[in-house]
Amino acid sequence: FSCCCSQSMSYSGPVVDAHQHFWDLEKYSEEYKWLNDLEEGSKMGPLKHSYLPQDYMKDTKGCNVVKSVHVQAEYDGEDPVEETRFLTNLSSSQSNSNGFPHAIVVGVDLSVEDQSVIKKVLECHVAANKSKVCGVRQLLNWHDSIPELRVASTNLLCDETFCNNIGLLNEQGLLFELHIYEHQMEDARALCERYSEMNFVLDHVGCPMDHSEEGYGKWLESMKLLASAPNVHCKISGLVHPMHTSKDGWTSDSLFKWICGSVETFGVDRCIFGSNFPVDRVCGDYGDIFNAMKLALDKMKLTADQQKKIFHDNAISLYSITS
Q1: I need a labelling partner for 177 at 20 to 30 A (CA). Which of 187, 197, 276, 293 fits?
Q2: For the segment 74-131, what is each residue's pLDDT rounded down to a tens digit?
Q3: What's the N-to-C CA distance of the chain in angstroms?
Q4: Which residues pair with 175 in a beta bridge?
Q5: Could you write out the three-class secondary structure of the chain?
């Protein structure tokens, strides 16, 4: 990929990274199955190590990242609330002078039929850190005909139990993060319209898999459809994810169309920046990815104030970050 660090960037203000992860594999050696299943020496192999605030601060040095949002990292322990307790302790540890993370999107299985079970888990997450727990994510990626693209156990967006249970988040004032593919955006829009009073966030610009001109066109039309629901926000994150936008490598130019398409469809007021570190770290340095984002916004001729909305203000408001 091409480094654009030498380019002149207009935005130099504070940054909220709205999508990052921490894990301690010494403390939780068996609780992250997906990490344990990674093969040493593979593209994703470097992730099979603990990633903590001191690592994150090294990666973000010089980028003026002042706040971050931790998104659930598929913790698979017996007690699903333990990840929130771990993050709470981490944010107040002496070695974490910046207090990362400042907001927490937790993991909850919303496909469970017994709503009382879900309510209890949600209440325990909120009780563990009332000031930081702000939302829920459950991976929904599904493809009817390509099994290797299935992350969820079934097509949850078409599952009435799951869709009914989304309403439990609204009772707690929590948002929901949509981790989906382009072809799922129509069903996602129906869900967002059903719960028009709560916020939804599209992760990783919809995980685009088809980089052809035709694939980009389909993605853009689906983005326009989803963006027509005013309670949906777009997280410009996972930009160099090894399975999505950078599976064939990346340059600042190759990322531009995904960034530009996201901002043009959702607008400056509904886009936020996220790094997806350390996952995207296997494909590039934080500063290079960050500068590619800034370069794209400059190329779109966004003002410094408009860029500040995307890099900082929108996330502060959306995730109710106060400290």
Answers
A1: 293
A2: 999 999 999 999 999 999 887 888 999 999 999 999 999 999 999 999 999 999 999 9
A3: 36
A4: 135
A5: CCCCCCCCCCCCCCEEEEEECCECCCCCCCCCHHHHCCCCCCCCHHHCCCECHHHHHHHCCCCCEEEEEEECCCCCCCCCCHHHHHHHHHHCCCCCCCCCCCEEEEECCCCCCCHHHHHHHHHHHHHHCCCCEEEEEEECCCCCCCHHHCCCCCCHHHCHHHHHHHHHHHHHCCEEEEECCHHHHHHHHHHHHHCCCCCEEEHHHHCCCCCCHHHHHHHHHHHHHHHCCCCEEEEECCCCCCCCCCECECCHHHHHHHHHHHHHHHCHHHEEECCCECHHHHHCCHHHHHHHHHHHHHHCCCCHHHHHHHHHHHHHHHCCCCC
Over residues 207-219, the pLDDT tens digits come to 998 889 999 999 9
d(CA 231, CA 315): 14
Name the token pair of 233.
């926000």
Placement of tokens 């777009």 in the chain = 234
The Cα-based distances of 156 to 45, 86, 147, 150, 234 in angstroms read 29, 28, 15, 11, 20
Tokens of residue 208, six digits: 């685009």
Tens of pLDDT, residue by residue over 40-72, are 888 899 999 999 999 999 999 999 999 999 999
Residue 201, token pair as written in the block: 């966030």
Judge contact between 219 and 183, C-beta under 8 A.
Answer: no
CA 61 from centre of chain: 21
Which two tokens mark 109?
């299985």
Structure token digits, residue 49: 């190590």
